Amino acid sequence: MKINPYLNFAGNCRQAFEFYASCLGVDAVLMSVGDTPAAEHFPADSQHHIMHAQIDAGNGLTLMGSDAPSDMYEVPAGISVALQVEDIIEAERLFAALSEGGTITMPIGATFWSQCFGRFVDQFGIAWMVNGPAPDGSQASCK
After folding, report:
1. Is residue 138 part of a domain?
2. Same domain membership, residue 61 and residue 91
3. How many CB atoms lie within 10 A of CB 87?
4. What CATH number did the domain enclosing 95 receive?
């Protein structure tokens, strides 16, 4: 069994997944409504919307999403995409890259459970947590 986070967007899924792929150093798979056999069943002004977006981050980890129809879109609440990173420098890099243009809700720093942890809501309205390695004395804590 595999559990994948699935994110809904209000028409900016393409921009979000291109941004995420760039930050994570992976490729995004993007399929617009107009690229599908079902295109004829959708209004002309939604042909550019994303019906399927996917990023495979390795180790069986996949982030998926799409543009929700405008009458069905809800602002995300009560959920975060959590990244577990085993290197402090990579945790700091990902936090800085993914939070660009967003709102930092907890600056990245050492906690009792992690040498490097931070939270933010990205520029697309998605909440994220970046969690570095547990404190074990092998690495210095992040800034």
Report:
1. no
2. no
3. 14
4. 3.10.180.10
Number of structural domains (the chain) is: 2
* Nearest Cα to Cα of residue 99 among 76, 74, 124, 78: 124
- C-alpha 102/C-alpha 125 separation (Å) is 8
For 44-86, write each residue's pLDDT tens digit.
Answer: 888 899 999 999 988 778 999 999 988 889 999 999 999 999 8
Rounded to whole angstroms, how far apart are CA atoms 32 and 88?
36
Has residue 14 been placed in a domain?
A: yes
Supply the range of the domain harboring residue 127: 81-131
Q: φ, ψ for residue 70 (rounded to 5)?
A: -55, -35
The first and second tokens of residue 81, run together, are 């995409």
- Please tell me whether residues 25 and 58 are part of one structural domain: yes
Strand partners, 56: 62
Nearest CA-CA partner of 101 in 39, 31, 12: 12
Is pTM beyond 0.70 here? yes
